[in-house]
Design brief:
Length: 269
């Protein structure tokens, strides 16, 4: 190919922000997993990585221009059909990826800043809206409805009984919401320095990442630190999947797997 044509192609990719990246995570903030794959939202890609057998590859790369779709993904989840969901603050939208990896906007931009996503057993999508201080639901038609008012909501997760746990930027740090939308502060959670995300595992542990405290807490039956300090530097997103519990630490080892009270690096060298 002539050099002039190569230069034109390169400049075109640069102008749209779609230059191919090397297979190294930049600044991971959100995570979701299936039995076979781990998906990681990366603010500096920007976009989503797909990790299989410890090796990352780009699943979706967005344009670098803010305000374009999926430019600022904050959270990920897997729906009841196994499809990947992504909350994007750049477009104030939640997207669903189909089996071909194509993203569909669900609400027409009727969400503020989505910071957490979880899915109920009946398929209803729950989203924390940091901008408007609320948790909303999205039904099959994309209709958004307010479920509960929560100050500064971030990550969220259901337990087996249907109680919704929400990590918050408020003094409560962690609240729980029943089926009627009644919000209650979780005892002992105010000790968290900065609650980022929450995930309830198969043993019923209510696991919360504490970014400033370099910790993962458990609030099942009390307030206990599962892990503090190394290898954690600034844990953010956390998820529970059939293959295990995973978390992301953008200032530390990137993607880690949590086993009992130990965390190990997922990505191979």
């Amino acid at each position: 190919m002539p050099k002039t044509i190569q230069s034109i192609i390169i400049l075109a990719f640069i102008s749209t922000g779609l230059v191919a990246q090397d297979a190294t995570l930049k600044y991971p903030v959100g995570i979701a997993a299936t039995s076979a794959k781990i998906y990681v939202a990366d603010r500096q890609l920007p976009g989503i990585w797909e990790i299989v057998d410890g090796k990352p590859q780009i699943y979706h790369q967005a344009a670098k221009k803010f305000g374009t779709p999926l430019n600022a993904i904050r959270c990920l989840a897997i729906d009841t059909n196994g499809n990947l969901l992504a909350g994007d603050s750049a477009t104030r939208e939640v997207y669903r990826f189909n089996t071909e990896g194509e993203a569909e906007a669900l609400t027409g931009g009727n969400i503020g800043i989505p910071m957490g996503i979880t899915v109920a057993a009946d398929g209803t999508i729950y989203v924390s809206d940091l901008e408007l201080h609320r948790v909303v639901t999205i039904d099959a038609e994309g209709k958004v409805a307010e479920f509960a008012k929560v100050q500064g909501p971030s990550g969220l997760s259901f337990d087996k009984s249907g109680v919704l746990y929400v990590a918050t930027r408020s003094a409560d740090r962690l609240v729980k919401i029943n089926a009627d939308g009644e919000v209650t502060a979780v005892d002992g959670a105010s000790e968290i320095r900065f609650a980022q995300d929450v995930a309830v595992d198969g043993d019923g542990r209510v696991l919360v990442t504490d970014g400033y405290g370099k910790s993962v807490w458990n609030f099942a039956g009390g307030a206990d630190k599962v892990l503090e300090g190394e290898p954690l530097v600034h844990p953010v997103g956390i998820t529970v999947s059939p293959s295990g519990t995973y978390l992301v630490d953008p200032r530390g080892l990137g993607v880690l797997k949590l086993d009992a009270d130990m965390a190990s690096k997922v990505l191979s060298e």
